[in-house]
Amino acid sequence: MEDQIISKQRVATYGEVLTGKREVNAMLDLVKHETERIDSRFLEPACGTGNFLAEILTRKLKVVEDRYSKNQVEYERYAILAVSSIYGIDIQEDNVNQCRDRLYGIFDRDFYFRLFKNNTSNECRDAVNYLLERNIIWGDALDLKTKNEPREPIIFSEWSLFNGSMLKRRDFSFHGLLEHEGYRELPLWSDMGEDVFIPTPVKDYPPIHYLMVSDLDKQ
Fold first, then answer.
1. pLDDT digit string (tens) for 24-35?
2. Angle at 72 between CA 71 and CA 76, to 5 degrees
3. Among 39, 46, 143, 149, which residue has the fewest nearby CB atoms (within 10 Å)?
4. How many domains does the chain have?
């Protein structure tokens, strides 16, 4: 039986109860086609240790494997895109660290190394680590600010595959995303079609090779 409670104190203080695997899969199956679309974006605003995000990433990477496992370059490109589409916030720093580690393990141990063994690339691993650092945030989804000092507005980066091997990054404030009522109604933030309201980015970056995404912060 899964342990859904870390401590009684955390339940009392934060209302923290982790969702079980059976419930996670039942809920995700309601939007099954989205969980299996490589670039479909999901945000879990109280992600805990990543029960929802881990299952979403696993589903996406299974699709990547089915389509691209015979071509490592293509696999790396779309696996990175799958990782870049997953976002989380949690108020507990240990949860955030565990969630990042868990998602990285799914990418690397469960898929990447299993498929390509000694041909794997540290550049690809570094890119995935960077994306998880940016996308899984230690913050408070109620006041829309980070928990690390100084506390700042939560910023999410949108990553889009561009011209084959390039990723385009645009940064948006979480507050700006929530100004649209459609987002307020969703427990998981996913793409909702071409007509969805898109706020103005707070920063726009030039396209960069998908293996070099961490260099954007140096520009």
1. 889 999 999 999
2. 125
3. 149
4. 1
Q: Is residue 9 part of a domain?
A: no
Is residue 207 within 8 Å of 170, Cβ to Cβ?
A: no
Is residue 128 within 8 A of residue 104, CB to CB? The reply is yes
* Per-residue pLDDT tens digits for 156-202: 999 999 888 999 999 999 988 877 545 444 444 445 444 555 578 99
Q: Would residue 7 count as lying in a domain? A: no
What is the distance between the alpha carbons of residues 94 and 138, in angstroms, rounded to a whole number? 9
**Angle of CA points 219, 43, 198, to nearest 5°:** 65
**Where do we find the tokens 């009392």?**
12
State pLDDT tens for residues 37-61: 999 999 999 999 999 999 999 999 9
| Residue 27, H or E segment | helix 21-28
167 has which bridge partners?
161, 208
Q: What single letter denotes the amino acid at residue 94?
A: D
In a domain, 142, yes or no: yes
pTM (two decimals) = 0.84
pLDDT interval class at 217 (50, 70, 90):
confident
Give the structural domain span for 178: 14-218
> Which residue matches tokens 């240790």?
49
Residue 8 placed within a domain: no
